[in-house]
Amino acid sequence: MDVITTHVNADFDCLGAMVAAKRLYPDALMVFSGSQEKSMRDFFLKSPGYVPSLTRLKELDFEQISRLILVDCQHSSRIGRFAEVLGRPGVEVHIYDHHPGASGDIRPSGGEIRDCGSSTSILALILKEKGVEVTPVEATLMMLGIYEDTGNLTFPSTTTDDYAAAAWLLGQGANLNIVADFVTQELTAEQVSLLNDLIKSLRTVSVNGVDVAIAHASLDYYVGDIAVLAHMMRDMENLEALFVVVGMGERVYIVARSRIPEVDVGAILREFGGGGHATAAAATVRGETVIQVLGRLNRLLPERVNPKRIAADLMSSPVMTMPVGTTLAEAREYLTRYNVNAMPVMEGERMVGIISRRIVEKALYHGLGDLPVSEYMHTEYLRAEPSTPIAALQEYIVVQHRRLVPVFEKERLVGVITRTDLLRYMYAGVQRSAEAVYDLARENPPVRRREVLHLMNKGLPARVISLLRDLGRVGDELELPLYAVGGFVRDLLLGNKNYDIDVSVEGDGILFAEAFASRMGCRVKSHDKFGTAVIVLPDGFKVDVASTRLEYYATPGALPTVERSSLKMDLYRRDFTINTLAIRLNGADFGLLLDYFGAYRDLQEKSIRVLHNLSFVEDPTRVFRAVRFEQRLGFQISRHTENLVKNAVKMGFLEKLGGKRLLNELVAILREREPVRAIIRMSGLGLLRFIHPDIALREDNLRVLDEVKKVISWFDLLYLGETIETWVVYLLALTSSLSGGSFRGTCTRLSVSERYRERLIEMRDQGEQVLELMERKVARGEEVRRSDIFFWLRGLTTEVLLYIMAKTGREVVRKFVSLYVTHLRGVTTAITGDDLRELGLPSGPRYREILDLVLTARLNGEAATRDDELRIAASAMAAV
Description:
Layout lengths: L1 E5 L5 H13 L4 E2 L7 H9 L20 E5 L20 E6 L12 E4 L5 H12 L5 H15 L9 H12 L4 H7 L6 H13 L1 E5 L2 E10 L6 H11 L4 E8 L2 E8 L6 H6 L4 E2 L3 E7 L3 H15 L6 H4 L7 E2 L4 H10 L4 E6 L2 E7 H9 L25 H9 L4 E6 L2 E7 H10 L20 H11 L2 H16 L4 E4 L1 H8 L6 E5 L3 H12 L2 E5 L4 E5 L5 E6 L1 E4 L8 E4 L2 H6 L9 E3 L7 E3 L4 H7 L1 E2 L6 H4 L2 H13 L2 E2 L1 H12 L8 H12 L4 H10 L14 H19 L8 H9 L5 H10 L4 H27 L5 H8 L4 H10 L3 H12 L10 H6 L7 H14 L6 H13 L2
Parallel strand pairs: 1-2, 1-3, 3-4, 4-5, 7-8, 12-13, 18-21, 26-27
Antiparallel strand pairs: 6-7, 8-9, 9-11, 10-11, 13-14, 15-16, 17-18, 17-24, 19-20, 20-21, 22-23, 24-25
Helix pairs in contact: 1-3, 1-4, 3-4, 3-5, 4-5, 4-6, 12-13, 17-19, 23-25, 23-26, 25-28, 27-28, 27-32, 28-32, 29-30, 30-32, 31-33, 31-35, 32-33, 35-36
């Protein structure tokens, strides 16, 4: 008995190929090996006239099968019960498949396997060559298969054979209306955009010898039918295994497809709370970002794909260690910092023991925290080599209850294998790959180098381009990878002017800075603690240089501890995705843009997005930076990121911020061109109470803030050549409703330096008193002379004067201050104390009184010349 079948979860290509095979093997039974895709089930329900003659699986006598005809499949794991007949004496297996690279485990005795867009096309052309005609119904079913697997003959995997087969089927009477109804799925504009982003991010890595493709994107809106896009990508790129990860709002959707038994996507996505079959699965993850989901894939995939059996395949490297002099109390910090339960102890370059968390905790319980770990560490342990079989490690770890096995190349520690590594291996039959599954440094950049170079040449002055190339050449000489990073790169892509160049060095940043300075005749200011330096060029232009580093936080809101790391980890410590772009400056790769975390997409979508969910917990100042970047760039804080902001506010993490750090962020916001919008946004997010609990945006505050913008613009137009601290004016306006005591509390909370704090408080008090005096005078209709204005306002800083202009609701008062700033404050007397001395006035306080009297006369137009002033002074002296 001949049986025609295909893989489980059959699609239209399976159906079309089976129908075509039935013409080649007319006595064969057509039997599905398992379920069918929903689209095909819907087709059978809506078009009963097109349902071919099928035999049910349960009605089949497997013992009678003498020839098995497989279409669109070469793997025994995908054909259900039909795998039982493989290898049975006397059973032939014919395979017709369009994936020649699939290298399945079934050895065919007949059939045809060759590169084509569809398995149906192969069989259709065989029928054509043999002169076998088909009915219009059969032609339609076969055309459905070709159109589905080739994307209506548009996928890159489509070949001339597919077109030839489709043309022949059309001549056989295929009904394209039926085909269009069930196969043609017109993509929406949103789907096309998402598909484009997914293709740009798509990359393939080797996981334990198996190619796994991963694509990702982030959206703030919902796009349906991701599975359709995943299916298209899988077939367009002829992928063996594909994971598509898309963030939409507060959820991350994962769709996976696999053609090979080595990658059971159903089992993998069950780890994410989803499910499905070995070949097709999906999951929805809540409460995580796309980056976090990709990180979980990074850890999970090597444990689920293609087991290896030697230590080198299982070990973790590089190894985190602690020095032999570490105390037990310090050891707990090491173990917690790196989230491990055991760690090697080193004496220089030599490993001398292993300390475990269990031993540390017991020692601390007994009050032994001040003792060195050398007192209680394990000094006898298994020394594995990279080639050590896993079986040799199992008894040591499991039976002897050891947590860690060090791996050595001669005497050099090159890796460790933990109990968790081994248990995962034993449970899942897998091992850890040495290659990071989602090492984004290997990803094809979403912006081509040509485009970035064009932007650099267009947006940067020639001297800056020349400087960047000089930096790259020195990096090449020192064999140090070098990158321009941060806001400089972000603003370059946005077309904004920004020549504040930050450079990251994968290696010793201070060494690089000093080498560059010696070659180019520059000065260097270095900070050894942080591995940073500032290169100062002869013309004063500065370049900030830093060693790539990672940061960890001992407590929420604390200052970070810094350690050397890779570029990827250096960028991962930054605040938002849009600030994680890097441009390679080394010669051969000059202008290559690296986008590890979807920053380019977020720039296009104008979205502010954090990299991980604990971002605001570790550094609450990022909340204020989110607002600042949102308003400066005209972007929008993403929904998930905004929820994290609100959570940080609710949990009170911002209360732990040091005043100086909070002041720095507030000053940065108030120095922006449009700080009022940021202040309003801060109010909406509940951030103002962390400056002072009584600050609230009411109508009077908003009016003053709006007026500040106007008076600052007015002041700038005067071209007085005077620099002012605009942030001070906005701070005074923001706190205008606070009492003097509350304003002092605000300055104390913000850790304003004591000297400046007292000066600022004094100036504000004086300004408030003068404003009240002037408004009272105006309200009563009393005469106000120019000299009154001068002496009221004399001594007030320009910032306080502008604040008074903004706060007053009376136009007359505003004109008083304007008159003082533009004319009166520069008025002086022609005579001095020397003149009074010549007139015979004895030294004493009368000098100031008489000079002020003379100044009053000049201000009011009563003294126009020096002689006038001398006369008034003499008259005043005589009146005493």
